[in-house]
Design a protein that fits this description.
Elements (H helix, E strand, L loop, with lengths): L7 H14 L4 H14 L3 E2 L11 E7 L2 E7 L2 E2 L5 E7 L4 E11 L4 E9 L12 E9 L4 E5 L17 H4 L12 E4 L6 H8 L8 E10 L4 E3 L5 E4 L2 H19 L4 E2 L1 E7 L16 H12 L5 H8 L2 E5 L2 E2 L22 E3 L10 H14 L4 E3 L11 H9 L2 E6 L1 E2 L7 E4 H15 L3
Parallel strand pairs: 1-2, 4-14, 5-15, 5-16, 16-20, 17-21, 18-19
Antiparallel strand pairs: 2-3, 3-15, 6-7, 7-10, 8-9, 8-11, 12-13, 13-22, 18-20
Helix pairs in contact: 1-10, 2-5, 5-10, 8-10
């Protein structure tokens, strides 16, 4: 990046790169969001404590999910919730309980399971660390991140002559076990994890939720550093955009309007059906307990929900320059041209005309460009937390996101202008656009 001046877009991108580097797992991301909001004046809420809905900001962590809400000084009778939803997890390899295995030839490998719809080949020949959550024998929860410990070496072309012409064929059970040692029988990778977590040894670990992460950090490239390469941009791009929008609002908080809610769920990549996922009760718990603490129960709560809306923010697909035929021929979203409104007739995205108009207003108020995404009719469409949230709560929901290339790769690609624009649009939505 040299000595180029740090305009607002580049400052935002640098902060985003640091956020990515500090969020190797959903647990780290949730903790970091909560910590930054506490630094911005939000009060930490424990679920076992009486609920706090006094004016100002509040934040709660449930496993790898983080929920925050900002209550204005003057919540009108017709006030509702303005919700931004995102998710903290990304595809990875998850460590199995039998974490260390040995082959007949003496190779020590990690026992891993595929988490989410990852691009397997992108994880080959990368140095991998472990990150996530430990539960100790005395009941504590500890976040941990190791240095480089493992690698999945690809088979040499000399032993797979058809790999370039016939395609790479991978069996997840046979071919995707990382190597971490050799000729060291009885070695346990959890000893390394325990050491890096500040524990005496692996015997102090009662259980773990650990994933692999590439050790290569975020990096800018392209003309004037306009692109950013990193893992976990689906969907930390949305988490960070929403976080920075809420931090900005906390500096000049609104005195009236709706309750502002940030809902960052875990487990979106595997269906969301967990206690910290969008199909679980965590957001509903936050909304109901906040309404009850405000003295609004029964019909008053129903009126609040009827007056509410949700922006489901999750990364989408930019037109790929080498595979342009995979996209709709008449709708051509390209990264760098603003956030995308995601539309699907079969409701894989929950956007409708009301939600579209809401997003138009937010982008117009923020002064940022935006574009639309629809799938090629011959290609299946993914989904998001949007339809799940709309189904659970019955509120108007719209699906949006920035465009990526290499989605679900170990190293995805974004445009820094889109990141800054998304933060501005989300701030405008929360401020009442």
């Amino acid at each position: 990046m040299g000595t180029m001046p740090l305009d607002a877009t580049r400052e935002h991108a640098i902060d985003y790169a640091h956020f990515l580097a500090d969020s190797p797992s959903s647990y780290h991301a949730a903790h970091l969001v909560a910590q930054r909001l506490e630094d911005a004046g939000f009060a930490r809420q424990e679920e076992t404590a009486p609920w706090d809905a006094t004016p100002g900001g509040h934040v709660m962590v449930r496993d790898g999910a983080v929920m925050a809400w900002f209550v204005p000084e003057n919540l009108g009778e017709g006030g509702g919730f303005r919700i931004v939803g995102a998710h903290t997890d990304s595809p990875a390899f998850k460590l199995k309980p039998n974490a260390s295995t040995t082959t007949p030839d003496g190779w020590g490998q990690l026992g891993v399971e595929v988490y989410g719809g990852m691009l397997w080949n992108s994880w080959l020949d990368r140095e991998l660390a472990l990150a996530g959550r430990l539960v100790t024998t005395d009941g504590r929860q500890v976040l941990v991140r190791t240095g480089a410990v493992a690698r999945i070496p690809q088979l040499a072309v000399h032993l797979d002559r058809g790999v370039n012409t016939e395609g790479l064929k991978l069996d997840p059970q046979r071919h995707l076990h990382p190597v971490w040692t050799v000729d060291h029988p009885g070695a346990d990778v959890l000893d390394i994890v325990a050491r890096d977590a500040g524990l005496e040894d692996a015997s102090r670990i009662a259980a773990h939720d650990l994933v692999t992460i590439p050790t290569q950090g975020p990096d800018f490239f392209g003309e004037d550093g306009c692109f950013l390469a990193s893992g976990r941009q689906d969907n930390l791009s949305s988490v960070h955009s929403a976080l920075t929008a809420l931090e900005a609002i906390a500096q000049e908080p609104p005195t009236g309007g709706d309750v502002l809610v940030l809902a960052c769920f875990d487990h979106e990549e595997v269906g969301s059906a967990t206690r910290s996922g969008a199909a679980g009760p965590v957001l509903e718990d936050v909304l109901h307990r906040t309404a009850w603490a405000l003295g609004r129960e029964g019909d008053a709560l129903a009126r609040m929900l009827a007056a509410s809306s949700c922006v489901s923010s999750d990364a989408g697909h930019s037109v790929h320059p080498n595979y342009a035929d995979r996209h709709d021929p008449d709708t051509r979203p390209v990264m760098g041209r603003g956030p995308m409104l995601k539309i699907n007739a079969n409701q894989r995205y929950t956007t409708d005309a009301v939600g579209s108009a809401l997003w138009d207003r937010a982008c117009a108020a923020a002064g940022v460009p935006h574009q639309e995404f629809v799938s090629n009719n011959a290609m299946p469409c993914g989904s998001t937390i949007g339809p799940i949230t709309a189904t659970r709560l019955g509120i108007t929901t719209v699906d949006v996101g920035i465009g990526l290339l290499s989605m679900h790769s170990a190293r995805e690609m974004s445009h820094i202008a889109d990141l800054h624009a998304m933060s501005g649009a989300l701030r405008a939505y929360w401020m009442g656009a």
